[in-house]
Amino acid sequence: MTSTFTSQPGGDPATAAAPPAVVATEVSKVYGAGDAAVHALRGVSVGFAKGAYTAIMGPSGSGKSTLMHCLAGLDTVTGGQVRLGDAEITGMNDKQLTLLRRERVGFVFQAFNLLPTLTAEQNILLPLQLAGRKVHQEWFDQVVDVVGLRDRLGHRPSELSGGQQQRVACARALVSQPEVIFADEPTGNLDSQSGAEVLSFLRSSVREMGQTIVMVTHDPVAASYADRVVFLRDGRVVTELFRPTPDTVLDRLKNLGG
Length: 258
Fold this sequence. Notes:
This protein has one domain: 3-Layer(aba) Sandwich (Rossmann fold), CATH 3.40.50.300. The chain is α/β, with parallel strands linked by helices.
């Protein structure tokens, strides 16, 4: 049985004209087989508008992280289709997926995943070096200024606070100018003040740079920075919320049982 809720990008007037950056169509994901099979996603159809900030929420075990991993090409789907821009990623082999993630997608995880021996600047530029791409100096300067780390570029991760390390990770995701940034609980390891700094930066990257962000979070405050929240339950998209506030997100979660 597939989800009866099909969310399309552009349901909100503010993003109505924006084409989708990534779209899932009837996506299912099953782990295991037989009696041990776990249906993590059950026919999910949902789109994410370009230049928008979308949060994915739901109770524990609802499938939110699985959905993000399938959208980002980090995990394969059991059925259905995922498209990133003009590319269908569900039929790609490992080499093609690796290239797609390197060239077109950015990632921010709960763990900052910075290399301890490199400076902040070196960590930010690492994806470009690995891809053999030149640094776009004007873009790099804009990213550094928006993230507010100009005076920390020469510092190594051990010399930075948690919030500063996560902002370095955000800048690293942005510097390659990806089509979409996927953020998985990006403030999960941060105190409230540092978390607010990171969320404000992500918000600014959408507003000032036209970045597209898809973020998994369990925190209603974090979700309130988004333009839109998509809610999952039992592997299905069940509702969405535009222009969220912490209170409206919390109320919707309570109704979902999460």
